[in-house]
Amino acid sequence: AVAAGRLASMAGSGGSARGTADLAVVTADELRRHRYGEAGDTWVAIHGLVYDVTDYLPHHPGGGDLIEVVGGRDVTEEFEEADHSANSRLERRIRLKGVLEGCEDLVADLRARGWHEGRGVPNPARLLAAGAASEGGEAHSARNRGLGLFCVPVLLVGLASMLLATGHLLWRSWIARVSCRTCLSDGPPASKASAS
């Protein structure tokens, strides 16, 4: 069975306030026992989190056998190399079982960077930088909003300037063409005509 202990003291051992205290600890031996065909179900570990993927096997777009052959072990590298989409990370038939023993700090870091169970399988590349969550994350968002509030008007002014410059050039070009047509359609000026 899943290790009975919960990580009640995660905050005291370097984890975040939310840590991983609410997740069961799954040992490597327990994970190995859940290879395809061994315990009647298939578990995998991704980014230190253990998932039961049994119900998803028949629905995997590449075929369930791709998961079956890697069941019972950490498949983070294979999972990320397959470039899974945001939607695939939210697959409802994949159930979170707990945190892989020894990966508590990794999972606490994912949480500190904004990941939670509702976001499905973590995508570390899309999470905030370490330490930027909570107050820092809010400050980061405020900086981005401030930058956006500055950039949008600058871009609009630049676009308006380009349109005005282009319109001015088009106007001058049209005037020049109209003037030339007028000159050509009237024939030679009177002074040149009388001199010939």
Descriptive notes:
With 196 residues, the chain is of the alpha+beta class. The protein contains 7 helices and 5 strands. It has helices spanning 28-33, 65-68, 76-81, 86-89, 104-112, 134-185, 190-195, and strands at 3-6, 24-26, 43-46, 49-52, 95-100. A 5-stranded mixed β-sheet has the order 1-2-5-4-3. Strand 3 (43-46) and strand 4 form a beta hairpin. The radius of gyration is 32 Å and the shape is elongated. Residues 1-18 have low confidence and may be disordered.
What topology does this entry show?
Elements (H helix, E strand, L loop, with lengths): L2 E4 L17 E3 L1 H6 L9 E4 L2 E4 L12 H4 L7 H6 L4 H4 L5 E6 L3 H9 L21 H52 L4 H6 L1
Parallel strand pairs: 2-5
Antiparallel strand pairs: 1-2, 3-4, 4-5
